[in-house]
Write a structure and sequence with these properties.
Oligomer: heterodimer
Largest interface: A-B, 77 and 77 residues
Order of helices and strands of chain A: HEEEHHEEEHEHHEEEHEHEEEHEEE
Number of strands of chain A: 17
Number of helices of chain A: 9
Strand content of chain B: 35-45%
Largest sheet of chain B: 7 strands, mixed
Radius of gyration of chain B: 24 Å
């Protein structure tokens, strides 16, 4: 894909907007994307699957005053442009007048689109990808004799183009890339079998962790789970390892999202300016982070994005809003159409080992299962596996337990955030030490 | 020849102008290497969705997806490519990319032969056009009004309606051409209630491979509105759930998500071929109490999880997974059946043409037992009675599974007492199944709401069970 393709997608967006006007819409917005990629999986040393991905899509939303309709298709042909706009217009005949509906305000449109350095294609074919995946899996299988089986290692690379435009005259688009390498292996046998995985993901192929590092980490995580047992039901401090602490931040974002607020379906309703976390907690969002996994110079409505603090001094500074939810709440959009981009919570500075010592005796959680996080009430109850920690040292692996509490109490009871924030993905956090939760087991 | 196949040929070959000769050319390309199997999956799917929120029809969307996925298999290696352009040059390109997995050589090809002899489990209709737009929206408004009329504490009501018209055509290396037209409708009601500053939610819904009049029969959709409010009001009174091991009685129907997680995924052929499942190599062994007979049945007419043919063109069937506690069989797609030397079971499913098929469940349920449900509850001294669940998840390797109750009650001295807050239940599949000590005579299937995720692919499924008792399970509440 190249710059010429971007121009072609921009033309398609312009055609969609022109067609919407022609069919009588008072305003409209449209997005078009094209993606190409390769997925190669090696299992037990042999190439198992080679998948070539190739996706297109266009979507349009039309407004007739305050009534809205939308349509999308995988077909980018001129005929599809006409038909998709017609489908959206037909829908808009039936939706209700909604005073909050419409494009984001014109003065909020991004006026320049900074290059966030998100496009780094990986010059790789299926053979080369298989070589890397093989090296990764070999490192995992060779790490420890107790590694008994494998789900394989996968190399994934994807090039995407995306263009968004609306009838304010805004149009913007850019290419992005995303690459990853993952590995999952098994240890033990029979009813003493465990599985775990690790992965690396980045915009830039050279920034991925090495194949052997990913394999070794997958194997280490798996072997450490062997001999897991249940523990007695208890109340104790809980340390959520960094890769799972991301989920707690996601639950927080879920509770300050516009739709949860205007539907009064959030336990953090009306908490703007209130204390949510201990006073040392700072959570910020940087949508303009160069090479960031979730970076975007404008949001899904064309609104210019900017870094900001979501929590400062433990106090909630802002919600996560698009223009619709902002109007419903009598507020201004926070350029979060499409979600929170590159969130980060400040560390209290402890290493992982220091956090274990501070935990003293309690549960280290390294896996969570199920969806038991309720945004309306804050009630939290999830399946867990991990390690029992005694006197600051890992004692033995634990499985088949649950951890439960209420997110409001868990946020208030946050004792420390580790400096062990070396995890893939768009949320930057270290491990979270929480003062007290209920652990159910035997 | 069946009507669904005719319609599929019209939509996916005649409309884009693909002749049988063109189809043969593409298949020839896929087979111009040493492959053990190959197929082409054509799909044209239309989806319409509507959302009512705050008493107004807030959103509507219309979506079209079309394309073809091409697959070549050599041993246990799979090459896959797809295109959203149904034209010969793009199909040939995709065939070229997919076949690259296999060594140089040539595979035999059979003449194209239509599989017109397969029974159809649902009418090949377009549910998007089965009600007028005004009637669809009127129905949604009625549900909103019904929910609000139930109780003044109802604050928010969201009603959604989705209709899908999915047409598929699959041709394999044996020349077999099979087609299906798959209607799917779904409605859901979600409510928020408030009392003295405390807020809770409830939700209910259903669906089927039917026209939208499914929702009008016997006030079916109105009952979703009533049920959502009832559930939310129960939750307003809920106390903290217990933490620790207790006997658990599961209600009939949707709580069958237990079976989906505790045994269903672990019995999918791919995991067992690879030896990564806690059930691997255990056919013939006791894996559940003798009271348990569990089947996966893709042949129930009109059910959300049913398919006339799976996504590899194989006729679906009723497969016994566990009979009186003994593991009998796995759910298979073509590749895993061939590699394991086991029969195909019609469980090869895929989210769309852009995804590879794999063994997936259809409608998974437990056959009824002998006990009166009241008798089962009465048998429990202190325990949990769980009647409604959110989703679940399983680690097929360790066998650990969870499912989250969102309506449950304490049982004390054989009587149902106070409702408890939502809590996750966790267990080990084979262990939990062995602890089933009573099975009710009240088998119910769920109302048609299930969606199953595996390796990033979602497909509609069904679950069901009678009331049953598990002697001991860990309940993830906060009350110790």
């Amino acid at each position: 894909m190249n710059a010429g393709d971007i121009d072609q997608l921009k033309q398609t967006v312009a055609d969609l907007l022109a067609e919407a006007k022609k069919q009588g819409a008072s305003s409209a917005e449209a997005g078009v994307h094209a993606q190409q990629g390769l997925d190669v999986t090696v299992r037990l040393g042999e190439t198992e699957t080679i998948e070539h991905t190739n996706d297109h899509g266009l979507g349009v939303t039309v407004y007739f005053g305050n009534r809205k309709g939308s349509a999308n298709t995988t077909d980018l042909s001129p005929a599809a442009v006409r038909e998709t706009v017609a489908a959206a217009c037909r829908i808009a005949k039936y939706t209700s007048e909604d005073p909050a509906a419409g494009l984001a305000d014109p003065e909020l449109m991004a006026t320049d689109v900074p290059d966030l350095d998100l496009n780094h294609p990986w010059d790789i074919d299926a053979l080369k990808a298989a070589e890397i995946a093989r090296e990764c899996e070999e490192a995992a299988r060779g790490f420890d004799q107790r590694i008994s089986n494998s789900e394989g290692a996968t190399v994934h690379t994807q090039n995407s183009l995306f263009v968004y435009g609306n009838s304010h005259g805004f149009i913007g688009g850019y290419p992005t890339t995303r690459h990853s390498l993952s590995c999952a292996v098994l240890a033990g046998s029979g009813d003493q079998m465990q599985r775990d995985y690790w992965y690396t993901s980045d915009r830039v192929p050279e920034s991925l962790q090495t194949a052997s590092d990913v394999g070794i980490k997958a194997a280490e995580r798996t072997v450490a789970r062997l001999g897991s047992r249940k523990i007695k039901t208890t109340e104790c401090p809980v340390l959520f390892r960094a890769d799972l602490a991301t989920g707690l931040l996601r639950s927080f974002f879920g509770a300050i999202r516009g739709p949860a607020l205007y539907r009064k379906a959030s336990f953090l309703l009306d908490h703007l300016g209130e204390i949510i976390f201990p006073d040392w907690v700072i959570v910020d969002e940087d949508p303009l982070k160069p090479q960031g996994i979730a970076s975007a110079p404008f949001d899904n409505e064309g609104v210019a994005t900017a870094p900001r603090k979501l929590v400062d001094g433990g106090v909630l500074q802002g919600y996560v809003l698009d223009s619709y939810s902002a109007r419903r709440l009598g507020m201004q959009t926070t350029a979060n159409a499409g979600g929170v981009r590159n969130a980060r919570i400040d560390s209290t500075g402890e290493s992982f080992e220091e956090l274990l010592r501070r935990l003293d005796t309690g549960l280290l959680v390294t896996e969570l299962m199920g969806q038991g996080s309720n945004t309306v009430t804050g009630d939290y109850s999830r399946g867990a596996a991990g390690f029992w920690v005694e006197d600051g040292e890992i004692a033995y692996p634990v499985e088949e337990v649950t951890v439960a509490g209420n997110l409001r109490d868990m946020f208030q009871g946050l004792l420390a955030v580790g400096a062990d924030n070396d995890i893939p993905g768009s949320i930057d956090t270290g491990s979270w030490l929480i003062d007290r939760m209920t652990v159910a087991g035997d | 020849m069946n009507q669904a196949l005719n319609l599929a040929r019209q939509t996916l070959l005649e409309a884009p102008g693909l002749s049988e000769t063109a189809l043969s050319q593409v298949m020839d390309k896929l087979l111009s290497r040493q492959v053990d199997a190959a197929d082409i999956y054509f799909q044209y799917s239309r989806l319409e969705s509507w959302v009512l929120d705050d008493g107004i029809i807030k959103e509507g969307n219309h979506s079209i997806e079309q394309g073809a996925g091409l697959r070549a298999i050599s041993g246990d290696k799979t090459g896959f490519a797809y295109t959203d352009d149904l034209i010969l040059p793009q199909l040939l390109n995709a065939a070229d990319a997919a076949r690259a997995i296999a060594h140089a050589g040539q595979s035999g090809r059979q003449a194209i032969a239509s599989r017109g002899d397969l029974p159809q489990l649902y009418a090949p209709i377009n549910p998007l056009e089965s009600l007028s737009e005004n009637d669809k929206l009127e129905l949604m408004r009625k549900l909103d009004a019904e929910a609000r009329a139930q109780d003044p504490r109802v604050q928010q009501v969201t009603v959604s309606l989705v209709a899908v018209h999915d047409t598929v055509l699959v041709i394999n290396d044996q020349g077999q051409l099979a087609g299906d037209v798959r209607p799917l409708v779904r409605m859901n009601v979600n409510v928020i209630v408030e009392q003295n500053g405390r807020r809770e939610q409830g939700s209910s819904g259903g669906g089927a491979r039917r026209a939208l009049d499914f929702f009008l029969e016997e006030d079916r959709a109105l009952s979703y509105a009533r049920e959502a409010v009832r559930q939310a009001l129960v939750n307003l009174e809920a106390v903290a759930a217990p933490a620790g091991m207790l006997p658990v009685v599961l209600g009939p129907g949707w709580p069958g998500v237990l079976l989906h997680e505790a045994v269903g995924h672990g019995l999918e052929g791919d995991f067992n071929r690879k030896g990564t499942s806690a059930f691997s190599g255990r056919i013939g062994e006791q894996v559940a109490s003798p009271l348990c007979t569990v089947v996966d049945d893709g042949t129930l007419p009109d059910r959300r999880g049913s398919l006339s043919i799976d996504d590899e063109g194989t006729q679906t069937q009723n497969t016994v997974l566990i009979e009186k506690g003994i593991l009998k069989g796995y759910m298979q797609d073509k590749m895993n059946a061939r590699l394991m030397g086991m029969p195909e079971t019609g469980n090869g499913r895929r989210e769309s043409y852009a995804h590879l098929p794999m063994p997936r469940m259809t409608n998974t349920y437990m056959l009824p037992g002998e006990h009166d449900p009241q008798e089962i509850i009465a048998s429990v001294d202190k325990g949990l009675y769980a009647v409604n669940f959110g989703g679940g998840q399983v680690d097929i390797t360790s066998g650990k599974f969870v499912f989250s109750a969102n309506e449950a009650y304490l049982i004390e001295n054989g009587k149902i007492k106070a409702p408890v807050k939502g809590a996750t239940l966790i267990g080990n599949g084979p262990e939990a199944m062995t602890r089933i000590s009573m099975v009710g005579n009240d088998l119910e299937l769920d109302s048609g709401v299930g969606t199953c995720g595996k390796e990033g692919q979602s497909v509609p499924v069904g679950v069901g069970q009678p009331t049953l008792k598990i002697d001991e399970m860990t309940i993830g509440g906060t009350a110790t």
